[in-house]
Structures are given as C-alpha cells and as structure tokens.
Specification:
The protein has 13 helices and 7 strands. It is α/β, with parallel strands linked by helices and 339 residues long. The protein has 5 domains: 38 residues; 105 residues; 31 residues; 57 residues, no CATH class; 54 residues. A 7-stranded mixed β-sheet has the order 1-4-3-2-6-5-7, with no helix packed on it. α3 crosses α4, α7 packs across α8 and α8 packs across α9.
Length: 339
C-alpha cells in the first residue's frame, strides 16, 4: 500500500499537468482566433438580394483586413429584390472605428471560383457606424454573367484551330515548330548574305575596291595634294602670282603707278579750269555769242522768205537752158554782125 506522501505527490503531479494542459489549450484557442477571443463583439446587418456562395462563418473584411464573421443568414420576407436576405455579421468592436457611416459593402471572391466574403469599403464621412446598424449594400456585376459565352466559344474555337494547325505543321508557325522548312529558308538567306559579304570583300568589285583599296583615298587625296603643291609654289615665289607675293618690285611698281595716277588726278583738280570760274565764264560767253550769230543769220530774209530762193531757182533754170542751147547749137551764139 502506497504511503500518504506518495499519494499527495501523485495528486500534485496530476493537478500540475492538468493546469499546464488547460493553459496551453487556452493559449492555442486564443492564437487560433487571432487574439480576439476575449475582445468585445458587436453586430452589424447587411441586406442583400442573393446569398449564393455565402455561409455562416464567411469572412467579413474591412478595406481588405479580416474584421469579423457572418453569424446568421436569414430571409427578411420583404418584397424589395435587394433586401431579400439579411446577414448578421459579428464584428470586433474596435474595428468600428474604421467603418464610417457612408461605408458600402459588396460580395466579393478572392478568385473566380473561390469562396465569397463580405467586403466593406470605408467612406470619407468622419462619423463612425454604431453597433446594430445597417451597412449600405452595393451590388457588383458578376463576372460570369458579363461574359459573352458565344464570343468566348468563338475565341476558343479560333485558338483550338490555331493549335491544331501548329500541331499538324500547317502555316508558317506550324512549319517553324514541326518542320525545318523555315530554318532551311532562313539558313539559305544567311548563306546568300554571307556570299554577298564575301564578294564585297573582294578588291575586284566596286564595294571591295572602295573598302579594301586606296583608290577612293587617292581620288580624294589628289585635289588636296595639288592644292598643297600650288600653295608651296606660291610660298617659294614661283609663277607670276608667287613673284608678286615674294618680290616687292612689282608691288612697288604698282604702287608707283597708283601714285602717278593720284598725282595726275590732283593736277587736274588744281587746274585753272577746275579751280576757278573765269575760263568757264569765257567759254559760256563765247557760246552765247555763237548762238546769237546763228539766230541773226537765221533771221535774214534769205532764210525767212522763199522769194530769193525762187529768184535764184529761176536764174539757175535760165542758165541751164542757155547752156543746153549753146551745147545744141553753138553757131547761134557765134554770129557777128558787121556794121
């Protein structure tokens, strides 16, 4: 029979292990609930038209952060198509500070086929929602409902036909994937390009001659060499222009000619005719007298009337007639009369 001391020690061990196990269990439950097990909870309501995809314990998120769970889903009995179902959401009280009175809720999913949840988006009103209040609901279009199935089927058929052509080697892409036709064609073009490059490298071709010989260089260099040679000749005094640049005699001769021309111009400028008005006055007076004489001659009767001209013309006619008669019959004018 065990002693009393052993019995007391066994009870102490059992009690200690039970207390530690209970503490570990409580800590585990606290951690699994996200540390909100002992925090106060409040209820908010949301009226929707269809609860498909939602269930009890569906998540409630505020601006993407988990803030509660859906605890009850029930019919309202109302005729309004967007208030047929009422969701009772259990929220952490401290999360109400992030939900304003103009916040809206939508039913969303993480993926196209994932579980749905209540997604609350905070508004801009500084006032916060009160416990047991209603959050406004805004429906969003269902992705599957907005997809045009006929168009989707047509697109899928096009993709399937394209994949079939590739699989059977039809078309450029199919030939590229399953055959070596495209590869051979590309290789042929690269071979032709390589041949053209090799041909261009030959000095017998025009491009090769320009690239690998100095023909173009010499053609461009010759004018500069000629110009350099001509400048060197000028610098050394060769040629007429070079002598003019190097020998000052021609420059001095030209300068002397210019100086003589300048002296002649100065002499003309200092002449009496240019320097004074006396010769100009004499010439002007002489010309005036000549003009007066011409006017006087022009005013003579011989020029002012035709009478003298007519008399002279008549005398000339008589004289011409007399000369004609004398020419025709000179005996007529050579007869002598004897007294």
């Amino acid at each position: 029979m065990p002693s009393a001391r052993r019995v007391r020690w066994a009870k102490f061990r059992v009690t200690s292990v039970s207390i530690v196990a209970l503490a570990i269990l409580l800590i585990l439950i606290y951690k699994l609930t996200g540390g909100t097990l002992l925090e106060p909870k409040v209820t908010l309501f949301l009226y929707i038209g269809d609860a498909t995809g939602l269930s009890v314990d569906s998540l409630v998120r505020v601006d993407g952060i988990n803030a509660g769970l859906v605890k009850k889903i029930e019919f309202t009995g109302l005729k309004d198509p967007i208030r047929i179902v009422r969701l009772s959401m259990q929220m952490e009280r401290q999360k109400l500070d992030a939900i304003s009175t103009d916040s809206i809720a939508q039913i969303s999913t993480d993926t196209l086929v994932g579980d749905k949840y209540v997604d609350v988006t905070s508004g801009k009103n500084p006032a916060h929602i009160a416990p047991n209040s209603e959050i406004k609901f805004r429906d969003q279009p269902d992705v599957m409902r907005t997809i045009d199935l006929a168009d989707l089927e047509r697109q899928l058929r096009i993709v399937d036909a394209t994949l079939t052509d590739i699989e059977q080697g039809r078309g450029p892409l199919g030939q590229f994937v399953l055959t070596d036709t495209v590869y051979v064609s590309l290789r042929k073009k690269f071979v032709e390009l390589q041949g053209a490059i090799v041909k261009a490298k030959q000095t017998t071709s025009m491009a090769g001659g320009l690239i690998y010989t100095d023909a173009l260089y010499n053609k461009l260099r010759d004018p500069f060499v000629t110009l350099d040679r001509q400048l060197a000749q000028l610098q050394s005094g060769q040629g007429a222009f070079g002598k003019f640049l190097r020998d000052p005699a021609q420059y001095e001769q030209t300068q002397a000619s210019v100086q003589g021309l300048r002296t002649a111009i100065t002499g003309v400028h200092s002449a009496e005719y240019i320097a004074s008005d006396s010769m100009y006055s004499d010439w002007n007076r002489t010309v005036s007298n000549l003009i007066q004489k011409v006017d006087e001659v022009n005013a003579m009767p011989i020029f002012s009337s035709s009478e003298m001209f007519d008399n002279l013309n008549g005398a000339a006619s008589e004289m011409r007639k007399t000369f004609k008669d004398f020419h025709d019959d000179p005996q007529k004018f050579l007869r002598f009369k004897v007294f």
